[in-house]
Amino acid sequence: MALRFQPFSPIFNFRSTKRRRTVLARNEVSATSNGYPSSTLTSKQGKPEADIIVIGSGIGGLCSGGLLARYGQDVLVLESHDVAGGAAHSFDIKGYKFDSGPSLFSGFQSRGPQANPLAQVLDALGESIPCANYESWMVYVPEGEFLSRIGPTEFFKDLEKYAGPDSAREWRKLLDAILPISAAAMALPPLSIRGDLGIISTAAARYAPSLLKTFAQMGPQGALGATKLLRPFSEIIDSLGIKDPFIRNWLDLLAFLLAGVKTNGILSAEMVYMFSEWYKPGCTLEYPLQGSGAIVDALVRGLQKFGGRISLKSHVENIVVENGRAVGVKLRGGQFVRAKKAVVSNASMWDTLSLLPPEVVPKSYRDNIKSTPQCESFMHLHLGFDAEVLWRAVEKALGPGFNREKCEVKLVGTPLTHKRFLRRNRGTYGPAILAGKGTFPGHSTPIPQLLCCGDSTFPGIGVPAVAASGAIVANSLVSVAEHSQLLDAVGI
User: Fold this and answer.
1) What is the pTM of this model?
2) Element (H or E) spanning 328, and its range?
3) Angle at 332 between CA 326 and CA 336, to 5 degrees
């Protein structure tokens, strides 16, 4: 799991080592090698083509491309930027390393059917990410500042100090209700899902016994709770009578960090999944030792290991449609690159729409995309400074011990920055689709041979979700037999 901080989020976590160059990339030190070579656009046959072209090297695109390469497809990932990773990339300024996106992670070391979707993809690619484990993160809220600790018991101490007298009882009631249904939320491995009727074989039939066993172990009450997994999480909160304002605000904050919406807009399944990673015994948070760029590097290594290609500074201007089918892309320089089997867009729904010739897009499809609400964008403050400078946190840290002139790097990331470097429409965080009032689109489009993955598609926003979306698209482009063989190979 990974969460992304936004400008109005009251959470920051800084780390500094004396007399060493230190980075404030919103909450963690990061570094990435980006040592992989940018590949050629030409196939082994010497032609500018591939079986499958992936537009964009965000986590969704890299997961899709990596798995397709693992399946034996000739894959070419085209990235407009000079580094891979999309919103999760890292970058270097004057020797300082910064993360541009997700900053709270967990589940990298999980394995098996209930593992984090990204961990499942990395496992399929034979890659792993060395991480540092930690159990707390610094929080600044109106009630005070404290070190938020994960696990089933530590948070009770924070509640006793900052929340109302009934908060501990309500929190226990919440945990007792949702932790038992976490097995149901995680019972179907994301890597088993595909976008056609083959899902009956790769998911439904394959995992039916374990699903039935899970529901039997949950009992009537647990099974009843599981029926709410596809409803807004606020409905579970309300049904339990959770009224403490601190807890409700805390849950809104967690939902917002995870999906860009509050509890009335996030699926219960997403929140229950997060609770299972944060509030069960033995839970820890994880941070890649080389920053979020290490995740990107691992996915690129996996892609290239199986013969996939990635071409940086390859800006896609248009998706080329012939006889009603997506047959390739045209680059900024005018070069046409053919896709023999499919084009996969990891761009947002709005940006993908802008890549298509208007005359080939059905009006209903265009209108639906244009009417989809957007999450707000975000701003970053990237600062590089000598660790001798005292840095506490945000404005309090920018007090007497801080001298702005000592900052060797001063960067402000705005929505325009994200639009320019990440090709995000209006710099948006993604679609603001509220649970119970709408659903994230599937991965097919009205244009044959054009599929989409990323945070504009099911399951939605967040690293686990976009990793799952990439996997679903990859699975959908191969046979059921190939898909089943992969599941067998990774033991899920």
Assistant:
1) 0.80
2) strand 325-331
3) 40
